[in-house]
């Protein structure tokens, strides 16, 4: 059953909203302000939060902002009253999913809940699939197909998104690192392009790339991407067919001066965004690992 946390400092409003929520077939929890709501969310993990905007200690707007930071997938429905229109607009921009005027609560809340619950149920179904997952492996082989990297990275992004594997910001970082890694395997591995050419900024880097994709031995080389997904992490092993390089020559990602160089940008992003980055001794294979964050392992505290 879908659980709705009602946040309101008025006992009367709690009872009215609670009756509407129960009529919609949902279970109900209550909190008197934003601080109590965060404690309840952390302890009971409701599916939806229904909150008033004007409350003591922590109002509805701040609650929406805190929930967006710590529980970005938790939908929030606002209960708006006369005089709270501006705050409601700010709360919607801050991440609230919907709103219902208090004067029309009995009818409007039912419609809002129905819409939001459809999203919640879809998320729950995807979470069930993830719970069933033991291990999933995929293997991809890329040449020099126009748009090939973007297509593959976009596909992997959508697969991880469907499973709610990471939040959106982490997914963007992960797929950015993956795209940079595949690009490096093609450019520096298979095409043997020198990173220093990028510092010239005269088009010579791209010109040489365009030339080599049609010349042996470069044209026949391929990049292989093995993707492994488990409950705890995603791992990509990217291999090229070039001569390799010395991995110890890579730029130090902790040195701020390296951020200003055109060359080495990709490896800086890769090492910053991922939990583990390891190269084979020959240098023509890199393993990328990103672990899933869990509440048990996290250090963030929404109440602090």
TrEMBL record:
Residues 284-304 are annotated as: Disordered. InterPro entries: Bact_response_regulator (IPR050595), CheY-like_superfamily (IPR011006), HATPase_C_sf (IPR036890), HATPase_dom (IPR003594), Sig_transdc_resp-reg_receiver (IPR001789). GO terms for molecular function: protein histidine kinase activity. Residues 3-117 form the Response regulatory domain. The modification 4-aspartylphosphate is found at residue 52. Pfam families: HATPase_c_2, Response_reg. CDD domains: HATPase_RsbW-like (cd16936), REC (cd00156). Its EC number is 2.7.13.3. Residues 284-295 have a biased composition (Basic and acidic residues). GO terms for biological process: phosphorelay signal transduction system. Signal peptide: none annotated. The keyword Disulfide bond does not apply. Keywords: Phosphoprotein, Transferase. This is Gliding motility regulatory protein. It comes from Stieleria maiorica.
């Amino acid at each position: 059953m879908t659980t709705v946390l009602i946040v309101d400092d008025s006992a009367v409003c709690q009872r009215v909203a609670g009756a509407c929520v129960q009529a919609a077939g949902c279970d109900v929890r209550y909190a008197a302000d934003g601080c109590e709501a965060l404690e309840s969310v952390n302890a009971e993990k409701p599916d939806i939060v229904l909150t008033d905007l004007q409350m003591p200690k922590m109002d509805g707007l701040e609650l929406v902002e805190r929930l967006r930071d710590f529980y970005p997938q938790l939908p929030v429905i606002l209960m708006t009253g006369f005089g709270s229109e501006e705050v409601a607009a700010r709360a919607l921009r801050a991440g609230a999913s919907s709103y219902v005027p208090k004067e029309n609560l009995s009818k409007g809340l039912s419609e809002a809940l129905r819409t939001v619950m459809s999203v919640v149920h879809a998320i729950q179904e995807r979470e069930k699939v993830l719970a069933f997952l033991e291990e999933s492996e995929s293997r991809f082989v890329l040449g020099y197909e126009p748009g090939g990297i973007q297509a593959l990275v976009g596909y992997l992004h959508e697969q991880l998104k469907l499973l709610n594997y990471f939040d959106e910001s982490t997914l963007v970082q992960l797929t950015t690192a993956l795209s940079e890694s595949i690009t490096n395997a093609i450019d520096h591995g298979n095409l043997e392009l020198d990173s220093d050419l990028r510092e010239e900024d005269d088009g010579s880097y791209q010109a040489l790339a365009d030339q080599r994709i049609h010349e042996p031995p470069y044209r026949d080389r391929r990049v292989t991407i093995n993707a492994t997904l488990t409950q705890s992490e995603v791992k990509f092993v990217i291999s090229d067919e070039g001569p390799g390089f010395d991995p110890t020559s890579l730029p130090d990602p902790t040195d701020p001066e390296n951020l200003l160089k055109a060359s080495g940008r990709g490896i800086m992003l890769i090492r910053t965004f991922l939990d583990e980055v390891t190269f084979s001794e020959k240098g023509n294979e890199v393993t990328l690992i990103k672990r899933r964050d869990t509440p048990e392992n996290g250090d963030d505290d929404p109440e602090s």
